[in-house]
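Cross-check.
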Amino acid sequence: MRLEIAPGTSRARLHQPYGAGGGVRLLIVEDDRELAAALASAFARRSVSSDRAETAGDAELMLASAHYAAIVLDLGLPDGDGLVLLQHLRAHGNPVPIIILTARSDLGDRVSGLDAGADDYLIKPFEFDELFARLTAVLRRKGGFQGNLLTFGNLQFDIATRELLVDGVVLALSVRETELVELLLRRDGRVVPKRLAEDQLFGMNDNLGSNAVEVYVHRLRQKLERAGAATRIDTIRGVGYLMRLIA
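Predicted model, tokenized:
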């Protein structure tokens, strides 16, 4: 696949589809709607979900309500310089991996971006394959991709194949049940806030019923129990959900 974006334009050419990816969610901060949509589509073809923000203000609101594996950040935003957003995040101790994607090609701009805390810096026009490779490298360094298996009790989740195994036997799950169990396993004994589960399973823009997540939690509980899982999913009232080992 080739994604060609020329500075100052929004033309994109998408060709052959990708295979499966790592099941992470990104935040794309880009005011060019066509470019942002092209990026979101390209990532989706590698099974990487994404949300989009057109301004630094929108990005801050979304970061306050959801967890993202990484940010792809443009610098020229309608309400200010993306570099200011980057500096703000780092000043407040937010370690989320950030790849700057911009038409600013001067050495001074690249140095400023990296000095401000960016994990990588890619100049437009660019090849999507390179962006994806850089993203993968950054996530590996930061621990976003931690091998192929997530293990908890007698559960094993294969990140590459998107399969959950209970005592070595594959358990059939829907797409959203799969996303939910991965989210619970990645939190490794920590509570998954309900809002985070909503954003990860349905995205920021879906209209949800008040019990949408609870429906999938209930279904996943039943399947795990029938399969003999040595774990349970507890509802922490008013907070979210927690996967525990059964004593």
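The radius of gyration is 19 Å. The longest strand covers residues 231-236. Passed to J.P. for a second look.
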